[in-house]
Amino acid sequence: MTANSYFEYVLTLLGWLLNNGVWHTLTATGLFALPLLAKLVALWLNARGQGADEGNSARLLVVWLEHYVYAALMVMMFAGVPFLNVDINTISYDSQRAKQCGVPVAGIVASGTGDVKGSGGYIGKQILK
After folding, report:
1. CA nearest 8: which of 122, 83, 98, 116?
2. Per-residue pLDDT tens for 23-45?
3. Which residues have a Cβ under 8 Å from the Cβ of 94 and sit 6 or more positions away?
4. What secondary structure letter does DSSP report for 53?
5. pTM > 0.70: yes or no
């Protein structure tokens, strides 16, 4: 995966870290099941409140739960579960687009950031003494 600007590079890595951290916290603590449990109770109370003209309350509850659980699983699959492991080597910076457009972008060495080290590994080189 390539990023065409340093801003895109940093925000992509930050998004990966946040998504993986939130998903790990939800699965490790079991908090992902709390909204499912709350909705189960709400649907059960709603089914109990149905009148005799609606038919069998248990069958109605099962159908409602089936629809809700399928929708919740789709949301968890497409929005919650991380598909890529965070690795600083997975994404690379490509300066060709900036050169093609004629936009000068300061490199890490020329930006004056100095020796920048983070949890992702070595990022910059010290140029100021």
Report:
1. 98
2. 888 889 988 888 889 988 998 88
3. 2, 3, 4
4. G
5. no
